[in-house]
């Protein structure tokens, strides 16, 4: 799953991105408010980490523009401004969570996981679909109780489909949420990735709906 980090402090942004990547996410970074606003409105993200003190366009104005344009991506405000009035203003503008600086990176990761789960309609960190179990905290996947080792990209694929279980997800959406912006979107990498995962989880773990996409945890067609 793909996270956008809008933070003008390059060191903080880099540390957040590194931690998110280690937690199984794809992290994109921007330091400019106008560029961040455009990317948040035109690209598919599962959550956004937003600093209020951005250059060219401040975070609060940016957030209001997103919500006015119908962008529903979960947003976690990250800022050194700590007063309760500012927190209320951010929440009222459309933020989903608020974390003041300084912060513990583990708490930020936990909050991002929770935002992504809630946005996908999942209530707990343990996702279950038939014999398939995904522990989002430990980044572990098991089939009928048997742990299965996956590569980071294989894990991201299964995690995205498990978060959206029961819904058919097309290749374009998978590419949008599993790869960095500069990925070659004309390749057949999703089909190859699906094939590798099926070899590890079993041929029935991911169902193909020809002409539509892929699904985990669907009822009868």
Features:
221 residues, alpha/beta, Rossmann fold, Arc Repressor Mutant, subunit A, 2 domains, 20% strand, elongated
CATH-defined architecture of the largest domain = 3-Layer(aba) Sandwich
Main sheet, how many strands, which sense, barrel? 5 strands, parallel
Low-pLDDT stretches: none
Q: CATH class of the largest domain, please? A: Alpha Beta
Rg over CA atoms, rounded to whole Å, is: 18 Å
What structural class should be given to the helix and strand makeup?
alpha/beta
- Total beta strand runs: 11
**Element order: H for helix, E for strand:** EHEHEHEHEHEEEEHHHEE
- What is the global morphology? elongated
How many separate domains make up the residues? 2
> Helicity level, as a percent range?
40-55%
Q: Give the overall pLDDT as a whole number.
A: 91
Record the strand order, biggest sheet.
Answer: 2-1-3-4-5
How much β-strand is present in the residues?
15-25%
What gap, in angstroms, lies between the N and C termini? 26 Å
CATH topology-level fold name of the largest domain? Rossmann fold
Counting H and I runs of at least 4 residues, what is the number of helices? 8
